[in-house]
Structures are given as structure tokens and as C-alpha cells.
Write a structure and sequence with these properties.
- This protein starts with a strand and ends in a 10-residue tail after the last helix.
- The protein is 36% helix and 20% strand.
- It is α/β, with parallel strands linked by helices.
- The longest helix is centred in the last third of the chain and has 22 residues.
- The radius of gyration is 19 Å and the shape is globular.
- It has twelve helices and ten strands.
- The strands form two sheets. A five-stranded mixed β-sheet has the order 2-1-3-10-4. A five-stranded mixed β-sheet has the order 7-6-8-5-9, sandwiched between helices.
- β6, α6 and β7 form a beta-alpha-beta unit.
- The relative contact order is 0.21.
- α2 packs across α10.
Length: 301
């Protein structure tokens, strides 16, 4: 019953150049804890530069599955009949497990107060309006009855963001790990708010199956058995009091940060222990992308 499964690790540039996405953690746990072996799956990985580039090879069955962030590009592809299947959670903004934070210059956090109203009129760095973090920003602003037009959005890659915060080019940035922890350790940044305070439970990543792999029910189910078992072990280590030694040992073997001790200071990413997707959040994201004109109104529900 051995199956060779080709999975793809994707995320938004520049993270994929360095292989730093924490959402890939269940893959590495499944490999290191032998879960893929136990269900007869040989898991092979490839890296694709951006999430927008993953749909075409999935639809053409050149890949079996992808753990990928999603934005308007994925929704536009689905609305045009690209037949990929979302089967499980691969990252959401859970309480204490957001994998990202709103960061400010070192020493400035106290001046921003406790609610999102403080960013009115500020320059806010975000990767782009077609990403999940754009939705997070809109939802955070809405808690203070603010809109995107109440801030100045500066679109920046994650790798350029810490320097922009430190030199004052932007006031606040929505930054992801490992850049958050690196910026704090270097004395450049303070964490103002973890992004689960922007939109708790927001769906950020998902596991997608190709049409061919989705049709192979036996292999598809066996993959999910291993993936969910690995996710539960990862979550045990990710939360406070978890085994940070095991977490760091596994992730440092596969991700760009090779110091296993550094992972204990990172904000880990939430993933549902049962693989459940947050459909309410997905619908909210659709509405935001439609309102921004990034996907046609009424194209998806």
C-alpha cells in the first residue's frame, strides 16, 4: 500500500526562499515521528515561490497536495473552474498561536495603547492587499469603526519590514515569524499585539488536494491520518509548557533557522487539531476581496 505523495511547501515571498514557514510543521513532525511510514506514504517535498503559483500545477496533477496560504488569487482560480480541493486546516490565527504580530519600533509599544484605534493615521506595513493579512488588517480596524482609508498602507515584503519599522519608514507592521522573533532579539522591534487579536480564528492556510489525489480516497485518507496525528503532536509542543526541545529539534532540521533554541521564543502558528476549516472566516475573506475588487462580486459564496 505504499504511496508516493508529492507535497509542496508554499508561502509568500520572501519566506519561501528561506523555507521558514511554520505552517509546514506538521509535515516535518509526520516525517520525524514516523507517521507517514506507519500509513505507507512516502512524502516528497518541492518548494514553489508563491502561493499564487501553486494552483496550476495542482490542477494539472503535477503535485498531489499543497500546504499553502490563500488569497484572492486562489479564489479567482476556483471561480474559473480550476478544480482543487480544500481538505484541512494548515494555519489559523488561534489565541496565543497566531504565528504573526503587529510590531512597532523598540520602545514604542507603550505609546500605542491597548486597542487598534491607535493606528488611525499611521503608516502600516503589510505584504499586500491580496493576502490574508489584508483581511486581518480590515478586521482589526473594524473593531474601532475604522476603515483601510484611515491608515496609510505600505506594501512590503516580510524580509524588508523589520528595517522599515526600525528606521521609521512605517509605524506599525503586520509581521510573521521567524522575522518577529529575530527583530525582537536584535533590539529592533517590540511586539504590540499578536494578530489573533485582529481576527481570532482567521483561516490563513489550508491543505489543498489535486483532482487526481482527491479521487484516490485511500491515499488521501492515509495522508490526513498522518497529518492530523502530527498536527496534534506539534500543538502539544507549540503551547506554553510544551516540549520546546523537541519542537526546536524537528523544525530546525527542515526550516531556515538552524538554532533549535530560537523556536521557543517564536509565536507558533495555530492549526486545528481535527483539521477543521473555519468557513465563517473564509466567507469573511471572500467578502473583503470582493469589496476591494480583487475578485469579481458574486463569483464565489
Amino acid at each position: 500500500r505504499d504511496s508516493s505523495v508529492t507535497g509542496v511547501q508554499t508561502c509568500a515571498l520572501p519566506i519561501c526562499r528561506t523555507g521558514s514557514s511554520l505552517t509546514t510543521a506538521p509535515f516535518w513532525y509526520a516525517i520525524e515521528l514516523g507517521y507517514f511510514d506507519q500509513v505507507g506514504i512516502k512524502f516528497e517535498t518541492v518548494t514553489i515561490a508563491g502561493s499564487g503559483d501553486v494552483v496550476a500545477p495542482l490542477a494539472a496533477n503535477q503535485l498531489d497536495l499543497a500546504g499553502t496560504s490563500f488569497g484572492s488569487g486562489l479564489y479567482n482560480a476556483v471561480s474559473k473552474g480550476i478544480n482543487v480541493i480544500a481538505v484541512a486546516d494548515n494555519g489559523k490565527l488561534d489565541k496565543g498561536l497566531a504565528g504573526a504580530a503587529a510590531v512597532v519600533k523598540k520602545g514604542a509599544a507603550a505609546s500605542y495603547g491597548k486597542d487598534w484605534c491607535a493606528i488611525k493615521g499611521k503608516k502600516v506595513a503589510i505584504q499586500g492587499k491580496t493576502t490574508g493579512l489584508w483581511v486581518t488588517l480590515e478586521k482589526a480596524l473594524a473593531t474601532c469603526s475604522l476603515k483601510i482609508t484611515d491608515v496609510t498602507v505600505v506594501e512590503l515584503g516580510f524580509g524588508d519590514t523589520n528595517a522599515a519599522v526600525q528606521n521609521g519608514a512605517v509605524d506599525v507592521a503586520f509581521q510573521v515569524e521567524p522575522y518577529v522573533a529575530a527583530g525582537v532579539a536584535a533590539g529592533l522591534l517590540d511586539i504590540w499585539k499578536p494578530l489573533d487579536e485582529g481576527r481570532a480564528g482567521q483561516q490563513m492556510n489550508m491543505i489543498l488536494y489535486s483532482p487526481q489525489f482527491a479521487a484516490n480516497r485511500d491515499a488521501g485518507v492515509r495522508f490526513l491520518v498522518a497529518y492530523i496525528a502530527a498536527t496534534r503532536q506539534y500543538l502539544k509542543d507549540a503551547v506554553a509548557g510544551g516540549d520546546k526541545t523537541r519542537l526546536g529539534t524537528i523544525l530546525s532540521k527542515y526550516l531556515s533557522e538552524k538554532d533549535p533554541t530560537k523556536y521557543a521564543s517564536m509565536i507558533m502558528m495555530g492549526i486545528d487539531a481535527n483539521g477543521a476549516l473555519n468557513y465563517e472566516s473564509i466567507s469573511e475573506s471572500l467578502a473583503v476581496y470582493q469589496s476591494e475588487g480583487n475578485i469579481p462580486a458574486g463569483s464565489l459564496t
